[in-house]
Amino acid sequence: xxxxxxxxxxxxxxxxxxxxxxxxxxxxxxxxxxxxxxxxxxxxxxxxxxxxxxxxxxxxxxxxxxxxxxxxxxxxxxxxxxxxxxxxxxxxxxx
Length: 95
What we know:
The protein is built from five helices and four strands, in the order αββαααββα. It has a four-stranded antiparallel sheet. The protein has about 100 residues and is an alpha+beta fold.
């Protein structure tokens, strides 16, 4: 699996495990991702995949390197897709 495929799978897993926000983004903590059995089976190097996704500006989190235990409560935010952001803006405008 190449990096782009892993990043896409990571985005799917964040959507599965995270909570959708008002702006269409998803938030999940590092501990939830790291301790999930399905994620453990998919990602050989979860931290590396997170860094690749952050570098490509798909998601944000504080810090550079996340370590299990120490950073379990760090929130990872998957940015909304342009379509989700547009739908949110449209819904706000209607209200």
